[in-house]
Design a protein that fits this description.
Rossmann fold, Helix Hairpins, Heat Shock Protein 90, 8-stranded mixed β-sheet, 5-stranded mixed β-sheet, 13 helices, 48% helix, elongated
Length: 465
Amino acid sequence: MMLASPTRARGTFSPAGDPPGVDALPWGSHLCHFYRTGGDLLDVLIPFFREGIARHEACVWVAAPPVSAGEARAALGAAVADLAERISRGQVVVVGHQEWRARGAGATAVGDAPWAVEAGRAAEGGFRGTRLAGNASWLDHAAPCGCAEHEGRVREAFVAHRVAGLCGYRLDRCGPIDALDAARSHQATLLRRGGRWERIEGPSPQRATEDLHRHALELERRVEERTALLEDALRARDEFLSVAAHELRTPLASLKLYVEILARAAQRGPLDAADASRRLERARVQCDRLDALLNNLLDLSRIRSGRIALFPEELDLAALAGQAHARFSDELARSGRPFRLDAPAPVLGRWDLLRLEQVFNNLIANAVRHAPGAAVEVSVRARADRALLTVRDEGPGIAAEVLPSLFESYAQATPSRGGIGLGLWIVRRIVEAMGGTVAVESRPGRGTAFTADLPLRAGGGEDPP
């Protein structure tokens, strides 16, 4: 076969199977393919039309020997289960070449041509466009297109009517000049050689220029998008560093103050035990705050790099809820806030102990920070093969426009309350890594409830980056 060398601008190859480049076709596409047998013809046209049907495009198949209209319908029906329904809806038209020729006998303008009529019907039927294919075995000449000028006119007409066309040529009816002329007058040629499909792009300088222009625009768009993403990332980084520095500085300043007070008191004489104990307890609280902040920062890095592993073990979620309740009880009791635990029965499953403790701590700390003075409740329930962990507060609630982004990194419902906006993001990533989901329900003035829905048998592994 002498097509490849003189006509190829560039080629695309694929193993035997569907030919390349028949799936997403821009309107105005005008391709050709060469076949030897009816089987070869079907190997191209079946995937061509199957893809068009899947993309909600109208499909018009002009059947001619060696494949009749009946054989075409049968072959396409084997690939498309509901073909009869699609034919009845007008999405698929299979017509013999003699009928097709009769339809176009009196056409004097492009709009009267049979393919243009079918394209108009497709538009009226709500389809995205029209795929048109036929083989040239019934024509007087093997290569009816014949010249690049004609191909250009066909392409313009196809673009205007939202049509993509595929012309077939039988190799035993094409001489070398006919084959070369057919290949040159189409945008691309499909043929199978040595068990592989080959798509040979046409040599049109205009098309090459258009391709370069399109690729340049696409490259420019991608550069702009990535530049914008980089700028957003840099702004987010700077904002995060600023907030993190502020949040770390506050407990450090308090801790330093308590240590200095204790040091000065020790210099004056023996320390009062009660006063020393009170100040040491305050220092411990600030140390816990620093520890939580640093853990969140470490988790941010680990989760994003995919380095957090889960180690499931047999646990009672109700018992873990009780332990979390005990950790926060003193803090809430000092502020006079009700803190309820509702975990009446054991909820047994396999989870990562440290990560579940982190989920409890972050959800409760979030309620303490953003619902000052309000009652907080921790509840645990089993439902079929799932466990539900809920932390509810009776605080001011969260505005509806804030809820969709609440589990994103650096997101804060009330920035004035402090924090670096990582707690809920970390909760979501941990819960999802265990195969669960986390959701929030809130209405202004009606409080907020965060619920983690976990499978009783969470797997181990690493979080996605």
